[in-house]
Amino acid sequence: MKAILVPTPGGPEALVYSDAPDPDPRPGEVVVNVRATAVNRADLLQSQGKYPPPPGESEILGLEAAGELEGSGERVFFLLAGGGYAEKVAVDAGMLMPIPDGMSFEEAAAIPEAWFTAYLNLFSEGGLRAGETVLVHAGASGVGTAAIQLARRARARVASTVRSAAKREALLSLGADLVVDSSAGDFAQAVEEALGRYPVDVVLDPIGGSVLEGNVRLLGRGGRLVLIATMGGGSAPLDLRALLVRRLRIVGSTLRGRPLVEKIALTAAFRREVLPGFADGSLRPLVDSVYPLERAADAHRRMAANENVGKVVLTVGA
User: Fold this and answer.
1) Is 171's pLDDT higher than 70?
2) Cβ pair 165, 228 in contact under 8 A
3) Which domains are present in the chain?
4) 34, 168, 198, 311: which could form a disulfide with 179 (CB 3.0–4.6 Å)?
5) How far is CA 178 from CA 3, 43, 136, 246, 270, in A?
C-alpha cells in the first residue's frame, strides 16, 4: 500500500509518500480501505519527533479516517491511535461508526478526533450544563468548531478566542455568542467587558501556559479548566488562592493514549448522543481544505501557518 512515512523527523518536508506494508490486523480488528483522513496538531508534532505513538500502535501518522470496510464495502469512519495516512488501516471493530447518508468521506474523516475531543472534554471532563458559559480557545480549529456547535446544542453560552479577526464571522455562524481576537490584546479583559466578572464556568484550552492566568481570572465559583494541549507553553504562574477561594478545578486530558476499552465506550456514547445530529443536519463538520495524500506536506504547512478554519483533510485512493 501507499502511505506517508517520516524516515527522519522534521517539518513538512520530512513527509515522504512511499510504499509500506499492508496492515496486519490483530484479533478483533478489521481492515478498512481508507478514502479520507484528516490532519491534527498531533500529526505535526509526531512528524517532528515530539509526540510518539502509544506503544504497539502504528508509526504512520493519522488519528482518524473514513473509508470502506474490506470485504463488505460498508462506509465507516473512526478514531485511530495512528495509521490513517495510508491506503489501508487496521482498526478494532468496536471503533467503527456508519457514515450518515449524504455525508462524504471527506466530511466524515473530519469528525472523529476533533469531535470526540470536544465531546469528551466539554461534558465528561468539564461537566458543562445547560445555562452555563464555556470559553473555547482556538475556536477556528477542528476541536474549536466542534466544541462551539456541541456547546450551543447543549444550550450553553459560548465565548471563543481566535488569533485572526477574519475568522470571527465563521465562528459566529456556528453559534458562538462572543468571539474575541486574542491577538488584539488581553482576551480576559475583552471577555470581562462583554460578560462581566467571573463569567465562565468551563474553559476548553489547547493553549496552556500563555493563557493560564487569564483563564483563572475568568472562572467563576466552581469553574473547571480542561487542558487538552500546550501549544502556548507548558508552564506558567498559578494563583493557588484563586483555586481555593473559588473552588476551581484544573483537569488535564488527552485522548490518544486512553485504553482501547475507554475509546470503544466513548465511540458508543458518541454514536448514540451526537451522531444523530449529523444525520439531521443540526451539526456539521467544517472542512477547511482538501489535499490528496501525496500532498500531505502542503496540508501540514497550512495547519502550521494557522490558516485553517476547521479541518484540513487528505483524500486517499480513487
Assistant:
1) yes
2) no
3) 2-112+256-315 (3.90.180.10), 126-252 (3.40.50.720)
4) 168
5) 41, 30, 10, 24, 27
Query: Which set of grid coordinates corresponds to residue 63?
Result: 488519528
End-to-end Cα distance, the chain: 13
**Residue 244: CB atoms within 10 Å:** 9
**Percent of the chain as helix, strand, coil, to the nearest 5:** 35, 25, 40
The answer to whether residue 318 scores a pLDDT higher than 80 is no
Q: Classify each residue of 272-294 as buried b or exposed e, where b means 16 or more C-beta atoms within 10 Å of its C-beta.
A: eebbebbeeeebbbbbbbbbebb
DSSP state letter for 55: T
Per-residue model confidence as pLDDT tens digits over 199-227: 999 999 999 999 999 999 999 999 999 99
* Separation of alpha carbons 246 and 288, rounded Å: 39
Instruction: Band the pLDDT of 119: cuts 50, 70, 90.
Output: very high
Cα angle value 220/222/223 (rounded, 5°): 60
CB–CB of 151/158 below 8 Å? yes
Q: Nearest-CA neighbor of 277 among 117, 121, 115? A: 115
All three cell numbers of 105, joined, read 468521506
- Digit-coded pLDDT (tens) for 263-278: 999 999 999 999 999 9
Task: Give me 72's grid cell.
Answer: 463488505
pLDDT (tens digit per residue) in 1-13: 999 999 999 999 9
